[in-house]
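Sanity check

After download, print the first record. It should look like this:
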Amino acid sequence: MKIAIVSGHDEGPTKLNAFDNALSSAGIGDVNLIKVSSMLASNTQVTELPKLKAGAMVNCVLSEVTSDNPGDEIIAVIAVAIGEELGCVVETTGINRNHDEVINEAEDMVRYMMDKRNVEIKELIVEYSSATVKNISSAVSSVVYLDDKIIEG
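Expected C-alpha cells:
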C-alpha cells in the first residue's frame, strides 16, 4: 500500500470556499474525497502526492478545521504510525489550543492504537497545518490512499 501525507490552509469568502481552497492548497482540491477509518496495510510506503485524475474518487483520512472568527488560531493534525503488520492513522484539530498539545495528543492516540494491537511502530509521522484566521480560514491535513486508477498519466 502507498499513501501520501498532505496539508494546507487558506482563506475564502465562505466556510465552504475556505475549506475548498485549503484542499487545493494541500493538492487534493480537484478530487472527490471519501473519508475512511484509520487503518493501513502492512509495510505501507509513504510517497509524494502524484498528480491525481480530476474527479477521481479518493480514499483518505481527513483532519479539517474551519473558523470565521478573526484571530482564531486553528490547527489540523494527522499522525501516522507504520508497523510491519499494519499501521494506524489518527486525526485531531484545535481552535485556540497550544499547537504542541494538539500534536502530542495525536501522537499519543496513534501510539495507543498501535500498542492495543501489539504492533511495534517502525515509523511515526506527524503532519499538520495551522493558520491565524483573518476572515474565514480552513486548515486540512490528510492521508491519501494511492492506487494506479486515481493517478494521472
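If your output differs, re-run the checksum step. Summary of this record's structure: Residues 99-116 form the longest helix (18 residues).
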